[in-house]
TrEMBL record, chain A:
It is found in: Cytoplasm; Nucleus, Nucleolus. It holds the Pfam family RNase_PH. This is Ribosomal RNA-processing protein 42. GO terms for molecular function: mRNA 3'-UTR AU-rich region binding. Gene3D superfamilies: GHMP Kinase, N-terminal domain (3.30.230.70). GO terms for cellular component: cytoplasmic exosome (RNase complex); nuclear exosome (RNase complex); nucleolus.
UniProtKB/TrEMBL annotation, chain B:
It comes from Zygotorulaspora mrakii. The lineage of its organism: Eukaryota, Fungi, Dikarya, Ascomycota, Saccharomycotina. Belongs to the RNase PH family. Its main location: cytoplasm. This is Ribosomal RNA-processing protein 43. GO terms for biological process: exonucleolytic trimming to generate mature 3'-end of 5.8S rRNA from tricistronic rRNA transcript (SSU-rRNA, 5.8S rRNA, LSU-rRNA); nuclear mRNA surveillance; nuclear polyadenylation-dependent rRNA catabolic process; rRNA catabolic process; TRAMP-dependent tRNA surveillance pathway; U1 snRNA 3'-end processing; U4 snRNA 3'-end processing; U5 snRNA 3'-end processing. Keywords: Cytoplasm, Exosome, Nucleus, RNA-binding, rRNA processing. InterPro entries: ExoRNase_PH_dom1, Exosome_comp_Rrp42_subfam, PNPase/RNase_PH_dom_sf, Ribosomal_Su5_D2-typ_SF. The keyword Cytoplasm applies.
From TrEMBL, chain C:
GO terms for cellular component: cytoplasmic exosome (RNase complex); nuclear exosome (RNase complex); nucleolus. It comes from the Eukaryota. Belongs to the RNase PH family. This is Exoribonuclease phosphorolytic domain-containing protein.
């Protein structure tokens, strides 16, 4: 908890020009994160992400074969935040948002999940946020990205065309195929004065007047985008011109983050 | 010195504006009003609140059973009832269930016996709706006692009043036929005179299920009456959509395989709803009753406002407490102070669906009950003209 | 979880709900003419007795018909430790035929909470809670604009809540409202100088943010003038009654 004076000092140094962040980072700079993948033996893919402030999140990916003629909803996210009820507004909001992000209409290409003309893989993504000191959605999306990138699926051995023949797909006993899917990333930016900051720390969130959650895929910012409040203090409106500014910043630097995640 | 002492014991009467007084002492406020021959709402003792209704504004189907909307709206019947400051929004939605028909090879004697016993069982021939009540009072979570009681009461009363016969909810299923040119049309057996078609009639039976969602806004007093009346109006407005299945499904057998068990072969119909055509729900008009409620309260002689010109009356009234009948209880003061109530559902001919008499505090005399029944007949006549 | 709900009468469990597919009309989509279409906004406040403030918003255009009731309960005391600012909660109940997912409505509710966190002067009401309820009476999408969906009703929710807050006498920094354009919603205060909320859903047409911002601002100014007009008229009629 910061005192009123500390808050004012922090606000002035962040809202001013040039901006001074308490840890000396640039506005777009992230703190180091640690990611481990493929550590859950019973899942098809998994990842664990730890931010330098101690925020931690585990993602497990499981797959199931479904009849896609019945439902073409092939990705499903469930979020659990330690210490919060399943029906708490934050958990519900993050779950609804992430499901929206992973909807095929948004931009993710799910054609690689199709097995046969009738059956597809359905991916269940379970997210557990162990601890979080700022808005966790960005961290979750990084974890989902690396978990999906480390997901291996059983190899199909039966025929592709099963419309005529009533057949359930069969799989190879040992061989696995790497899942090739490109999920969008989600970034949270804090708005302080007329400035924007990526990966805001807890104290920076505390003095922020508003926040912006932005989805990014293939070098472009896409919908859904939402404003959100990062802390309960001093929530204020902001200049509309900040939104394009934030989008520009993300489009400029998100590629580097993607590269960092790819290089795992 | 003595003068100041006298001044300190000087008592100043405190006056409150009526709304504040009603809040502080609802009982006394009510009694004061009643002694003037008027109720806090400025109604007279046996005066009901005016009811305004708005039928079918939310429904999918117009009065002639043709869809007025081409959206996904699935409200089959609706009603907005406004009574005083309170308003009730009722929307009827539906579902469909398959009825298990006994296999033909059943023992005929037993079947006959079943039929005879079923004939006597009047309730078994009636159907009901499944109401869900929400009384808006700025809270979330599980339903309150009031909401649960009202929904159970509505369910029971619709069932026992015989308003809806079970047969009114039977589905007359049509079929969708694709002719040789590739055009599709939907055939309903009661619309076509072509006798040959009946061979296509599906062998299974379905029935409609009705759900009523009733939301009460701005609750100022007991709401059961309004919910019941609104539900009755909404049911009168209800249209049941026509149902059909594809001709390929009439005799098609589809295999449904369950993993781990041996294959189960089951007939599977994909039942579809006609988004344009509907038939009105047949309700037994002669069974319609409207609800009204009454409260009985003793006038407290000590709370009377003494009127100078009628001073001689006061002594007379002091001797025995006079009980009065109030129609259509409203406002917090009336609801909390009146414990003896009569609730009636009935029509103008005196046919009663439900009468509930709760005696608590004031004694309910036979004259009171007679008067309440007479008033409920008048109320029925008034409400009947609204739709 | 297979817990039976014993508090409500649910009917038979195997019932299949009656639903209808919207009838798709074959007509060319005229996205560009959206501005020209006449919209009507009907406002009323103070219609509900047992709450602190309430409002009714009915919106009609060629694309959409929406009616909602907003009610505000509060500021009322909250239990627990001292808070220096009022806690705001928004609940959205769907009474309409619109088949919105429950979790999407919750997401919308929490978005509205963020919008009103910056609009309500919360420091005026310490240790209290302001509970806002929205009842969607009906919401009809007259064109098959599935992806506009939930975003299109946000401006009306904001308008409704603002009126209900004013009716409840809760201090707001400014009259807020918003506009919707192609899946994007901007909520403004201070004549469009400040944004209090931004929501963007994927839409099928190529969107231009500057364009959306401009259109939404126009709509906000329009809605705001309707609201202030209504409030002035209301005040006048009240003062006439008092006199």
């Amino acid at each position: 908890m910061l005192s009123v004076t500390e808050k004012l000092y922090l606000y002035d140094s962040l809202a001013g020009s040039p901006t001074v962040r308490p840890d000396g980072r640039l506005p777009h700079q992230f703190r180091p994160i640690e990611i481990y993948t493929d550590f859950l033996p019973s899942s098809n893919g998994s990842s664990r992400i730890i931010a330098s402030d101690g925020s931690e999140c585990i993602v497990s990916v499981k797959v199931k074969v479904v009849d896609h003629t019945v439902s073409d909803d092939l990705l499903q996210v469930e979020v659990d935040i330690a210490g919060q009820r399943d029906d708490s507004p934050q958990v519900e909001t993050i779950t609804a948002f992430l499901n929206k992000v992973l909807e095929p209409t948004v931009g993710i290409d799910t054609s690689n999940l199709t097995l046969t003309k009738k059956y597809s893989f359905k991916i269940f993504i379970d997210v557990l946020v162990l601890s979080s000191y700022s808005h966790p959605v960005s961290l979750i999306s990084f974890a989902i990205y690396s978990a999906l990138k480390s997901t291996y699926l059983p190899k199909l051995v039966s025929s592709f065309d099963d419309l005529e023949v009533e057949e359930y797909p069969t799989f190879h006993d040992h061989d696995l195929v790497k899942l090739n899917i490109n999920p969008p990333l989600v970034f949270v930016t804090a708005i302080i004065g007329d400035n924007i900051f990526m990966d805001a720390s807890a104290s920076e969130c505390d003095v922020s007047s508003n926040g912006l959650i932005v989805t990014w895929l293939d070098g472009k910012v896409i919908a859904p985008i939402r404003t959100t409040i990062l802390s309960d203090n001093d929530v204020k409106g902001f200049n509309p011109q900040i939104i394009p500014k934030a989008i520009k910043m993300i489009e400029q630097y998100a590629g580097d983050i993607l590269q960092a995640l790819e290089n795992l | 010195m003595t003068e100041t002492a006298v001044e300190t014991v000087d008592v100043h009467p405190i006056t409150f504006p009526p709304p504040v007084f009603a809040r502080i002492s609802p009982e006394l406020s009510l009694q004061r009003h009643l002694s003037l021959g008027i109720r806090p709402s400025l109604r007279s003792f046996e005066e009901f609140r005016e009811v305004n209704i708005n039928e079918g504004t939310l429904s999918r189907f117009g009065p002639n059973g043709v869809a007025v909307e081409e959206t996904g709206n699935n409200v089959l019947g609706s009603n907005v009832l406004k009574c005083g400051n309170t308003f009730v929004v009722t929307s009827i939605t539906g579902g469909i269930v398959e009825i298990n028909i006994p296999v033909d090879e059943e023992d005929i004697g037993e079947k006959e016996l079943m039929e005879i016993s079923e004939k006597r069982d009047y309730v078994n021939k009636c159907a009901s709706v499944f109401p869900q009540i929400e009384v808006e009072r700025g809270r979330t979570g599980a339903p309150t006692d009031e909401e649960m009681t009202i929904s159970q009461k509505l369910y029971d009363n619709v069932l026992h009043s015989g308003l809806i016969s079970k047969s009114a909810l039977d589905v007359d299923c049509g079929i969708r036929i694709t002719d040789s040119t590739g055009k599709t049309k939907i055939v309903y057996f009661d619309e076509t005179k072509d006798g040959d078609m009946s061979q296509f009639r599906p062998k299974r039976k379905w029935a409609y299920v009705l759900y009523a969602k009733i939301v009460v806004f701005s609750r100022t007093g007991p709401v059961f009456d309004m919910c019941w009346n609104s539900l009755v109006y909404a049911l009168k407005d209800t249209k049941l959509p026509r149902v059909f299945i594809d001709e390929r499904a009439t005799d098609l057998k589809m295999t449904v395989r369950t993993r781990g068990r041996s294959a189960v072969v089951r007939e599977s119909y994909d039942i579809l709803f006609d988004s344009k055509k509907a038939v009105p729900l047949k309700i037994n008009e002669f069974q319609i009753g409207f609800a009204s409620n009454y409260g009985i309260i003793d006038l407290d002689p000590e709370a009377q406002v003494v009127r100078n010109d009628e001073g001689h009356d006061v002594d007379e009234e002091m001797d025995k407490p006079r009980a009065i009948l109030l129609a259509d209880i409203d406002s917090e003061a009336e609801e909390t102070s009146i414990n003896s109530t009569i609730s009636v559902i009935g029509d103008s001919s005196g046919k009663l669906t439900n009468v509930t008499i709760v005696g608590g505090g004031s004694k309910i005399t036979l004259e009171m009950i007679k008067r309440a029944l007479a008033l409920s007949k008048a109320r029925y006549d008034d409400l009947k003209t609204k739709s | 979880m297979n817990v039976q709900d014993r508090r409500r009468l649910l009917g038979p469990g195997n019932a299949k709900p009656i639903t209808f597919e919207p009838i798709v009309k074959e007509k060319d989509k005229q996205e560009a003419t959206e501005h020209d279409i006449k919209e009507t906004l009907f406002l009323r406040s103070g219609l509900i007795e047992n709450c602190n403030g309430s409002s009714l918003v009915e919106f009609k255009s060629q694309h959409r018909q929406t009616s909602l009731i907003a009610s505000v309960y509060g500021p009322r005391a909250v239990r627990g430790s001292f808070t220096s600012k009022a806690a705001i909660s928004v609940q959205i109940k769907n009474g309409s035929s619109g088949d919105y997912d429950k979790s999407r409505l919750k997401e919308l509710a929490s978005f509205l909470t963020t919008v009103f966190s910056s609009v309500i002067n919360r420091s005026r009401y310490p240790k209290s809670g302001i509970d806002i309820f929205i009842h969607l009476t009906y919401d009809r999408d007259l064109q098959d604009e599935k992806n506009a969906g939930i975003a299109a009703i946000i401006p009306h929710c904001i308008t409704g809540i603002t009126l209900a807050l004013i009716d409840a006498g809760i201090e707001v920094l400014d009259i807020t409202s918003g506009g919707h354009h192609n899946g994007s919603v901007f909520a403004f205060i201070k004549e469009g100088e400040e944004v209090t909320g931004f929501w963007k859903d994927p839409s099928r047409c190529d969107d231009n943010m500057e364009e959306s911002l401009k259109v939404c601002k126009e709509r906000y100014l329009n809605y705001k003038s309707i609201m202030t007009g209504y409030l002035f008229q209301n005040q006048k009629s009240e003062s006439v009654q008092e006199a």
